[in-house]
Amino acid sequence: MSRPLLSARNIHLSYTTTSGFLRRKIIASTKAVDGVSFDVFPGETVGLVGGSGSGKSTLARIVSRLIEPDQGEVWFDGELLTEVNPDRMRLFRRDIQVVFQDPLHSLNPRRTVGDSIARPLLNFSMPKKAALAKAESLMELVGLDPAATSRYPHEFSGGQCQRIAIARALALEPRLLILDEPVSALDVSVQAQILNLLKELQSKLDIAYLFVSHDLGIVRYMCDRTLVMYRGQILEAGRSNEIHKLPAHPFTRNFLDTILTMDGDERWLNAATAIEDVEEGRIDGKGCVYHAACAHRLPQCKEKTPLLKSIDGGRSVACHLYEEETGFCPSDLNAKYEGATSCKSKS
Amino acid sequence: MKAPAAYQGWRASHFNRCCGCDMSKMFASSHTDQKTHHPGGLHISELKIWFDTPAGPLRAVDNVSLSVEEGEIVALVGESGSGKSVTALAALRLISSPPGRFVSGSVTLNGQDILAMSEGELEAIRGTAAAMLFQNPRGSLDPSFTIEEAFLETLALHRPEMTKAECYRFVEQGLREVGFGDWERVAASYPHQLSGGMCQRVSLAITFACQPALLIADEPTTALDVGIQAKVLFLLRKLNQEHGLPILLITHDFGVVRAIAHRVVVMYAGLVQEEGDVQEVLKSPLHPYTKALIRSVPDNANDDEALYQIPGVPPNLVDPPPGCRFADRCAYVTDVCRNKLPELKKISESRAVRCHLVDSEGGIV
């Protein structure tokens, strides 16, 4: 396979709560991202899924260098992004662009949308006339009326604003687009429009997407590969379709169950009652982050941190259930769900 | 105003559980001054709300009738701009005037006429007679106060009889109830230190602390992840089932409707388009707009199909089209649809639909 466009290696970041005015004391510290590594290859879509507070947005911000990690390396196209000088970083900003969750807040209300879209081009010294002309063609690219560039963000609906934010992110022809929950603030019917637009743009422009979302259904629709995060760690990684069909980690199974479906089953209700208010219960950062809430926990889950390791079919999972001697496989986890047969009965 | 008996009972047990003292007496006394018993719930009838704009009045809510009976969860469904949030805000008269204008109709909350009340009287019932849960959780928390301070302020305002120690216990219990194991850290945090989902659970806890007789939830789970969404919906359903709390739930997601609502009212462009029992509407949606909304929920069954999207945009409500307001986006549009606004036809006791293509028995013409 080709060289990864983006790779993150062993990223750590803690948020600390301090108290006191002159002598600031750290009273609490939360590991937002805890030793995460992953790659994004050119032209592919990688989904980053997790619940609120799982560190997925923080991780997206770290790889776009909007915030600095405590520890770890981010490589982009063969260069160590975390250590390049500011001038060089400025050039990389063209290659990595971000689309945020709230479309109305990410556009300047006092600027016409044409100005907003042209702003990154002007920053990289494109003549004003050419930049505005490019803004118009970008508006067309995202399915809006090019003549509307002279209007202001409040004159557009949420879905249209998100299209404008996408147009602005595409202005510098980036190679990687970081989409931080781009549709979760939108109506269901508009969500579909934006997702279809993003897919169409990717096939036209050949950009890689890092797609941050809390919705496994959307991620499966959008992404080639999925990384499932919980409390700052990646618990499972693999092809989106396979994760959706046959999740390997107990957390992923529970997370999938919480999706509301139209077929009338009440799986979400059981899943919701299973999300107990458990404290992390880890001592000195050892043990599995999910063990306290896990229905399948083993004695060692509390003491030993499971490492992300490969199981069958290009999947990686961080779970003690998959120790070699037990012969456990994803089908066992999903035994009570339709279409899953135990792998033991096969052999 | 008197809370439903079942709910009062819940309040009593709730208090006894949380602090061990006999708060139920306190509760009883606070309600003795109310001599007359009013029917509970929310009743909106033929409500028209217009917003004055430079281009003319915008008919945000047009002849909407809606009721939430005791013990019922009613979902108000529609996309942005359909008037669903304005309808909900009208229940507590939270619409600033100008530019908003109540043109006609009535709003009755627990038997009291909301539109005739003074600002002072409204202040007294907001939060207790009906409480509101908003979509943007960060926007409803003051960024310069910690969660604990915000919580205590609300309790001081709505529950002045509680002592400080009881309030602190209430904070712990409230935060635990919405799933915070590490509630102490959350209580000491400022809103910006919490994620969106955490902020929403905090405002949920604060809303519950006021112990409202009616809950209006305006897209409470739209910005949340599915896990927390399930948790919040579970909490709402539990409050409704165990204590008869009536809920007006505003959403655009039929997945949410199916999960917890009893009845559904579908709005589009300021008008009620279809209403009925949730199971019935889901089984056989009659209005093309309802059908399209149900179809746009991402389905797990079909793998590689492109997601269904409703073409076009909603009409301008300053100058709405003369015919059906969904006509331009409708797949089944006919000539009569473009010229004549269909009536809201009653099909059965609970079912009504506004479409030329549906006859009075619910059959397709």
Name the descriptors.
heterodimer; A: 347 residues; alpha/beta; four-stranded antiparallel sheet; 32% helix; B: 365 residues; eight-stranded mixed sheet; 13 helices; globular
Query: Span between N and C termini of chain A?
Result: 32 Å
**Average pLDDT value of chain B?**
80
Q: Which whole number gives the mean pLDDT of chain A?
A: 84
Query: How far do the termini of chain B sit from each other?
Result: 47 Å
Total beta-strand segments of chain B: 12
Strand content of chain A is: 15-25%
Structural class of chain B: alpha/beta
User: What order do the helices and strands of chain A follow?
Assistant: EEEHEEHEHHHEHEHEEHHHEEHH
Helix content of chain A: 25-40%
Tell me the overall shape of chain A: globular
Task: List the SSEs and their pairings.
The complex is a heterodimer of chains A (347) and B (365).
Chain A: E1 6-19, E2 25-40, E3 45-50, H1 56-63, E4 71-76, E5 79-80, H2 86-95, E6 96-99, H3 113-123, H4 128-141, H5 158-170, E7 176-180, H6 188-205, E8 208-213, H7 216-222, E9 225-230, E10 233-239, H8 240-245, H9 250-257, H10 267-274, E11 309-311, E12 315-317, H11 330-333, H12 343-346
Parallel strand pairs in A: 3-8, 3-9, 6-7, 7-8
Antiparallel strand pairs in A: 1-2, 1-4, 4-5, 9-10, 10-12, 11-12
Helix pairs in contact in A: 3-4, 3-5, 4-5
Chain B: H1 5-19, H2 23-31, E1 42-53, E2 56-68, E3 73-77, H3 84-90, E4 100-109, E5 112-113, H4 119-125, E6 131-133, H5 147-158, H6 164-177, H7 183-187, H8 196-209, E7 215-218, H9 226-243, E8 247-251, H10 254-260, E9 263-268, E10 271-277, H11 278-283, H12 288-295, H13 335-339, E11 345-346, E12 352-353
Parallel strand pairs in B: 3-8, 3-9, 6-7, 7-8
Antiparallel strand pairs in B: 1-2, 1-4, 4-5, 9-10, 10-12, 11-12
Helix pairs in contact in B: 1-2, 6-8
